[in-house]
Amino acid sequence: MICSPLRSGVLRAAALLLVFSVGTPFLRAQEIPSGGTSLVSVADIAVNGSFYANEDTEGAIASRSTVTVTGQSFTSAARIDVARPTGNFWNSAVTQTTNRALANGDVVLLHFFMRAIETTDETGTVTLQAYFEGPAPDYSKSLSYRASATSEWTEYFLPFAVDGTYAAGVAGMKFGFTASARAQVLEFGGVELLWYGKTRTLAEMPRTPFQYEGRPANAPWRAQAAARIEQYRKANFTVDVRDSGGAPLPGATVSVRQRRHAFGFGSAMVASRLMGAGASNDTYRAHVLELFNTGTFENDLKWEPWIGDWSSSFSRSQTLAALQWLQEQGIPMRGHVLVWPSTRNMPDSFTSRINSADPTVPAAILDHIDDVMVPTTPYLEEWDVINEPYDNFDVMATYGYEHMIDWFERARANHATADLYINDYGILSGGGLNITKQNAYAETVQYLLDGGAPVTGIGFQGHFSATPTGITRIWQILERYATEFPDLKFRITELDLSTDDESMQADFYRDLLTIAISHPQMEGVQFWGFWEGAHWRDTAAMFRTDWTAKPAADAYRQLVYDDWWTEVEAAVGADGTITGRGFHGTYEYQVTYGDTVQSGSFDLAAGDATVTVQLDVAGEPLPAIVTQPLGATAAPGGSVTLSTAASGSPAPTITWHRDSASGTVVGTGSELTLASLTAADAGTYVAVATNASGAATTRPVKVGVRATGTQTERLANISTRGNVSTGAAALVAGFVISGSEAKDVVIRAVGPRLGSYGLPDTLADPRIRIFKGAEQVTPLVENDDWSSDLADDFAALGAFDLSGDTKSAAVRVALEPDSYTVQVLGVADGTGLAIVEVYDAATGQPVEMVNISTRGNVGTGLQKLVGGFVVSGDVPRQVLIRGIGPGLAAYGVPGTLADPIIRLYETDSEGQPRFLRANDNWTAGDIETIESVSASIGAFALERGSNDAVLLVSLEPGSYTVELSGVGDTTGIAIVEVYRGP
User: Rounded to the nearest 5°, which phi and psi values hold at 814?
Assistant: First the structure.
């Protein structure tokens, strides 16, 4: 026998109340409206109402006593001890009839408090049924509500309208206590039943809004979880397409589609449904295949149904047939359960044998493990070896806890590779407050490991009541076990939330899945059923009996097969590759080149994956530059690396030259590294790709050698084009003027004139408002229609003229060095394309910037957000470019772009755009360097795992354009930023 924390009779919350409830001040989140009068003649129905214990030959179902309460608005409460929780909720109840006549539609408010003292329910909560009922024979109910509570006092406001007309003393308020069918001890009190008649409406009544901590959309845990999901559940992949000669094959298209998650999304299933005939069973099977990639049987593998002790709905042959069918469908299954070590959960014959300490019982348990595992081993990948040992300990109490180790060892002997779990309830549920049980569970796991038991996983049952545990509390509990057992796998094994609040249920399932998948030790989440027609608690199901989807089903599909699903389709670049980042799992790809199509699959797990596809076609023989090099600047003694990529058939060789393509060869290969830099290394470099068919030359790039802190190259703003909308979707440009003196600047917002350049849907009447610093209420200056006095300034600045456009906005204003914001709006809430521009009026040069940024509504086509800037000077300057959508949500910006992508172009010598670089998800790059540079220049931090886009590049002096759009032509509000690097 081992220490007592490993066993208990019921979940005891009384000790917890000393920590969490005693002395807690009474707080009322909602107020009771004035004008109500009591509908009962007793002070508190809980303490003074009639009590029906339902006595029979076996004794009372429940008993009531009165206890003293401190720290609440009431001083005494009723303690209800439900010893025999059988039958319907009205089998034992507290009741009180009304003291006045009631009319149909009268408004009534029920207000009361309750808390858990002891419970054996998996949710860790107690339950009562509050119902307002008319007389026989109809017993019509104006209110029927199942309320749950943890060990902390929970306050309920339940308004309702009277259904019917009743004389005084006919209808009554009742509280039933056997609804959960589990033994429990609860306290409730402070009961008020207030009548308002027709003086109030239900809409005016307070109503308990059942919530859970962490539900708000901006809850901090979400960004943290997203970063962990990005880190632990995703990886990069590359598809490298080659021709028959092994050269890159630009022009091919590749589609990559996820087909299966590596993370387990499963449900308890019913073998008779999987094997049964009929439309309903056909629908059941279809939903299994659509929704889940793993599963377990709710009952079929338990001891009694396995040996035929239950109804004809269960049989060994049916279970094996269902397992075989699931295996054929590619759905791995886990077994539940080998040993549920109490007399109430073992075959009936074991009750007397255990009570009499029959010495043959331990061997019989081992025989059962053999009996169920031998035929099922080909179909099962893991087992719950022991279930609920905290409450189910009859075997251990009689024969010793060391037998638990024997059960694990026997399971391992039967299945050499299966994951072997211990499983229990009340660890995550019940508000996460049962520290005693959490400690005992950890001690049990450690006891098994110390004894050499081959435990590989910890199961956390997920049975939650209508007041579920907060998300951050669930995370804290998981982290506690992760700290103690870093080498064990985790699984949430029996998820359900029983509630009538379908919106909250949908949100909680979504959030529970999110926090679970974000934990690196979590293997999967298993719902304990999904359809009301085959669920132990129908209000917890995701589908109604008629198979219509509840909001929870829609939330599940959106999360698992949309938000957490990866599909990429792209044209192969000149280097023959496409890259992406996706969730761990199984993928299919298809490569198309002309009439040639080749398909295949690959698995994406921790660590990047590269798939090389060679098509039996001849590629383009001429060399082509796939990736243009970028210049760089470093201090004397430092080093720089220039890189490029080229395609062609056969694969071209690459040489690097000084000054021009005909200059001195200084290196070969795709990279050129210049180490121990001196002033002599500064200059221009180009790369030439050559094969038997010809040659291709890269853009010339510069290498600068400058002492740290002496680089003077500037970042300057020319214009940003975007779609102007209303509210948060207005076009907002920000910039910072550096230096020590004021600058005379011209700022323009141009709309109508853009039509002459072929741009459609331009903003008919722009207006601008300029703000200084953090000021966002009173503009420094504003303008609607520009003055003709500025025409000469436009000509001197080289800005295109606004002839015929009297509606665009422009101002000339002196600005001190500071940060500024230009807000572009449409008069009368007009919308359309516009350009915002900033010029130095004194020199005609672009205004020197530390950074520029523009926020706007990102559309498709010409309504993408396009930012332009200039790097001036002599040598390359490091520049940080960001396209941010999800990152704005933390700042309260609504409707943000979910997945931005940025593309960088330079303006070449002929005035044409030349593509340089692109980025979709910033964490696919050098995360640490990006974070370090961002912090050094004051750019706000991005959460790891967000879909924001970032490029950190060195750019030669010249003009550049950044195009910000949404992946898959998605739309929303985003910001494009350009920062001068350190």
Answer: -85, 125
